[in-house]
Amino acid sequence: MILGSGLIGDQVPPLLKSRLNKGIELKNKFSQSKLIVSGGQGNDELISESEAMGNYLIDKGINESEIIFENQSTTTYENLLFSKEKVANEHTRNPHITIVSNNFHVLRAAFLSKKLGMKASVLGSHTAYYFYPNAFIREFIACIAMFKKTHICILGLATMTFIYYLIKG
């Protein structure tokens, strides 16, 4: 399963090409497997991410019959949920799925796949170094938001502890 990451018009940008190339590498290693391309169409995109991803894979020699298209998702959670449903529609019972994303996105994709009860592993593809600062900040905030109740409880306990020691003197 290759997660989408946005297009430039109808073109696959380098970040997404990296994911797709990792998917091709896995497909060459496990020839009986299928590739799921997951991603809907954003307001600034001319086609869905899955369609652009499929076109890229076909141009690289992957047969269209070996590609499953999921074109409704707009978030990582939806990528995984809707792709899981597509796999279920293929009459495959609880298969092991390898999720491909970029290195910085692996942790959140793993958390979400576990939340959805997927039997999955997550592989990261190469990411240009200049992209890391922005990507890690975004992922950090997303992970905090994903576990906001836990973080609120920890922050509350820390605040109460601080106030207790402040009053106690």
Explain this structure.
β2 (35-38), α2 (49-59) and β3 (67-70) form a beta-alpha-beta unit. The model has no long low-confidence stretch (mean pLDDT 89). Strands 1-2-3 form a 3-stranded parallel sheet, sandwiched between helices. It is 51% helix and 13% strand. With 169 residues, the protein is an alpha/beta fold. The protein contains 6 helices and 5 strands; from the N terminus they run βαβαβαβαβαα.
Short account of what is shown:
This protein is an alpha/beta fold. 51% of the residues lie in helices and 13% in strands. It has a 3-stranded parallel sheet with strand order 1-2-3, sandwiched between helices.
Please supply descriptive tags for the structure shown above:
169 residues; alpha/beta; two-stranded parallel ribbon; 6 helices
Q: Quick one: biggest sheet?
A: 3 strands, parallel
Alpha-beta classification = alpha/beta
- Specify the overall morphology: elongated
Per DSSP, the total helix count is 6
In the sheet with the most strands, the strands line up as 1-2-3
